[in-house]
Amino acid sequence: MRKFSTFLIALCFLGCKKEANSVITDNRSEKFSNSLTNASHLSLASSATINVKNYGAKGDGVTDDTDAIEAAMAAAKKAGIPAVYFPDGSYMIGQAGDGGGIIKLVDGVGLTGTGPATCHIKLTGGRNNPSPMFCQDYVNTPIVSNVTIQGIDFNGNSSLQTFDSDYQYCTAFNFHNGKNIEVKNCKFQSFRGDGLFFGDTFEPSLNLRMVTNIDVHDCEFFNIYREAAMFCAVNDATFYNNNVHGDGYLVGGVDIERHSVNETVLNVSVYSNTFNFRDGYGPVERGGPKVRYRRAVTMGFFYNGYKNGIADSLSGHYKVYNNKIYQGQIDCWGMLNVSISGNNFKNSYENIAGVSFLTAPAINISDNVTTRGLINVSADNNIIDSDIGNGIAFKNYSKVTANGNTIIGTPLDGISVLSTSGCFYGNKITDAGTAANPCSGILINGNASGLYVSTNQASNTTTGSNRTMDYVIKIGSANNGTVAPQILSNKGKNMIKGILSEYYYQAGYVITSNNVAM
Hints:
It holds the Pfam family Pect-lyase_RHGA_epim. This is Rhamnogalacturonase A/B/Epimerase-like pectate lyase domain-containing protein. This protein has 518 residues and is mainly β. The protein has a domain at 434-518. The protein contains two helices and 47 strands. It has a 17-stranded parallel β-sheet that branches. Strands 2-4-7-10-13-16-19-22-26-29-32-35-38-41-44-47 form a 16-stranded parallel β-sheet, with no helix packed on it. The longest helix has 37 residues, at 6-42. The chain is elongated.
């Protein structure tokens, strides 16, 4: 056992604790900030509206109301009126549109209905690869700003359409450039694409198009093929108090995705939502068996990744917190400066072997291309009750924290740490592994300098041969990091083999103290 500096250990612990506390402070500040933002958005919607029926719309579920809706939006723009009003009814969109979409969005003109239970806008059936319902015209309307959409059910009628196997672009709304967009109290259902798409992809020059100041809240998303909402080329967006469920979600409930180095994707918060995938299945295009388990929230830089493999400042500062997730996970792939906190997972066993676009951990923080500079991701105070994979997995990150998580019944190790450095403390892990394949509370592999693992607790609630956990902490491979790990004051109850297992080729390498049985 090596001697260690009490001062350094205390300093590291306080640093981790300070970072966790800063997340809580930021979230409280964000709630206050959001209340101000929402108030300013609400001021955009004046009591003055233009009634779509005054421009020929029938809302009878039969008549093609496309021209009437476009005429009402044009009239509202001309008169400086901020919204078109839709009385109770079913307004059919019968035109085919073009590659961009059917109805072109109008700068400064929103849509207001009586509520999604009584006000519907639907695509007619019988289409092949239908265009988006509402879209932004790059050429004639390069900016769409100051728009509120509220109180309407948008229905893509996907069961009445036909699609090529790879088609996934029929969205309800595409916003590509502008600011101050609020979507509230709406329902989005049956789109072979996204419910809402914000930003743009594969820009030829830096920040050519962006959407800023977005709020999506108090909406329902049902049977959406790709994502409820996709945020790419955005800065400052919130997605909260929404209900995401049903079939579909090829990529995830919410996708925060950067596509190229010329895009900025910053400051997105996803909180207080319910992602309930128990009432539907993922698309068959995933391959493998058909499963309910899907991504609730995914954050990633896919495709070619960062220039020269070095993370830059144009993606990150995301907060994903206080969500309820059933049969789902949170993924963070190659993003930095991310807080994942206070989420509650409940996942029952499914065999996901061979299913594309899925990983097993409830929270997966990974980089598969060894990008340099991926830092400051925290997974704190989550409750994970999952029969699928690890509770939390880290790969190729530094300066991370996992603090105060409660992890129950995972078939693999509660927390898996691969080539990742940071602070892991105060976690409670129960019944990880299986009797046939015992696992540990925290499994550490690969090179990582300065790991700090302290005050974690692990316990078996079963006895004898039914126990599933072998160690509280297990080091499974050599670590050639500059600074040896510190493993301090961890406790275990009813472990099969013990509290700590060091890697047998590096006995005595780890700094240890006060790791004891409870």
